[in-house]
């Protein structure tokens, strides 16, 4: 009797445990399904939001073509094919891409000056990609659209490649935020399409540093000019890192060009390298620290846009600058500086 009662009790407990566990399992399964549905819905909402954001950004972007320093055509970033006859560009020519920075556009003075220099010295087709509507927002808003802009610009370049432009004849320049875009776009195209040459000027640091990025993967030859400590990046991973002025952190000329600051002077100096020699030091200055090896450079080496890139010259290159326009030092001034040191 007692045994029967005990067995019956154990059976009841087992049955209740089974029902509880079963119910608990069904609840877990129901919750898991509900959670999965909510996650899926959230992902769909996020995807839809991203697609809308991408559309909103791209619809304001313009692709502006220049030949012989003359604006020939302006197209939408949405175009999947460009009227190259109307642009005056030929796929057998070189092509250059120009990317501006925050609160800037393709109409900025430095952009029009660079387009003129590239047209004269390099020739071919010059294309400025204008995203000034997004760039006119706060820096944080622009930064949150970084991936969207990267994808949109990469799509534009892929469209050009599909129409016959050869990346081996390609060049890309980016200033500040545009410098980070140039690197990201180049890396997104790699390794299927490798832009031959990429130059950046004081690539933006805020929002991007200290994340280590291998900018050398952006193109076959990547050289980055550095000019400021407050707005420029401290990630020196380009094939060449050209440290302007005082260790790439400050420009003496900021005293006479306060409106530009050390950051803004970078692009002015880069443009001046087309017409004036900016001589490099053949060793790292004692007051400058270096995490990258110093480049071995020949006597009288000058920096700037380089048509025939010497891939043997890699590493950090220090280039002193002067107080007044065009901000370069003559050979005589450079020797005098070295003698003082």
From TrEMBL:
One of the GO BP terms on file: lipid catabolic process
Family the UniProt entry places it in: Belongs to the AB hydrolase superfamily. Lipase family.
Main location: secreted
Cellular compartments annotated: Secreted
Source organism (scientific name): Drosophila kikkawai (Fruit fly)
UniProt entry keywords in alphabetical sequence: Secreted, Signal
Gene Ontology terms for molecular function: lipase activity; serine hydrolase activity
UniProt protein name: Uncharacterized protein isoform X1
